[in-house]
Design brief:
This protein has five helices and ten strands. The chain is α+β, with helices and mostly antiparallel strands. The chain has a domain at about 20-135 and about 170-205: Jelly Rolls, CATH 2.60.120.620. A six-stranded antiparallel β-sheet has the order 1-8-5-10-3-2. It has a four-stranded antiparallel β-sheet with strand order 4-9-6-7. α3 (about 30-40) packs across α4.
């Protein structure tokens, strides 16, 4: 037994388990310029902070991506987001014939001024979400639950509960990820506003195969 104890460090080895990925794309300068132009028309002084009271929280402007005006101004942007989204879906290995396609359902702009941040959060009522970075520096923290996390009713050990990865991007990059993943942005230490466009998504068309209990028409 003593021999096993003395050699434990040499015996124990770590084996990677099912590495995961996020998907990254890079937009054209024309798409970034369109978002910047759209942003100049927003009266941010009238947009409340996300928390409402916490002064260091940034702001979110939710706009209708289906309105005629916004379609004209950001049509190319929305079309590109849908193309990227469906490219990801086609590479996920979801059963062919079950899902016809995906579409962007909600879009919004985030802005964080000097010393403002975006608290860790998830996106409910969505399957895949995306962040398009309009300014630099562009970083987002993603928190993945550890497989060794104890139920919170037993332990509040935050070191084990979430494993943080900081994703660094540049202006024009788009990150697509599962909507349930906890993510947030640290304090903006620069004096220029940090701006991103984000979106949610859902099924496009019918879900499932006809003549089965899994078929759900959505049109």
């Amino acid at each position: 037994m003593n021999q096993l104890t003395n050699n434990t460090e040499a015996i124990a080895k770590k084996i990677p388990l099912a590495p995961q990925v996020l998907y990254k794309f890079h937009s054209s300068q024309k798409i970034v310029d369109a978002i910047i132009e759209f942003n100049t028309k927003i009266n941010w002084s009238k947009v409340p902070r996300r928390d409402g009271q916490l002064q260091k929280e940034g702001k979110t402007f939710i706009y209708s991506s289906s309105s005629k005006k916004n379609i004209i101004e950001l049509e190319q942007t929305h079309n590109w987001l849908n193309q990227c989204l469906n490219h990801v879906v086609s590479n996920l290995g979801w059963k062919d014939g079950t899902i016809e396609g995906f579409r962007v359902t909600q879009t919004w702009l985030n802005i964080s001024e000097y010393r403002e941040f975006h608290h860790p959060h998830i996106h409910p009522c969505s399957l895949l979400s995306g962040i398009l970075y309009v300014t630099e520096p562009s970083t987002t923290n993603f928190y993945i639950p550890s497989i060794y996390s104890l139920p919170r009713v037993l332990s509040a050990d935050k070191r084990t509960t979430n494993l943080m990865t900081t994703v660094k991007c540049r202006k024009g990059d788009l990150i697509i990820f599962p909507s349930y993943i906890l993510h947030g942005v640290e304090e903006n230490k620069g004096h220029n506003p940090r701006i991103t466009l984000a979106f949610n998504s859902w099924f496009s068309g019918n879900y499932g195969t006809k003549n089965t209990l899994k078929y759900i028409p959505t049109q």
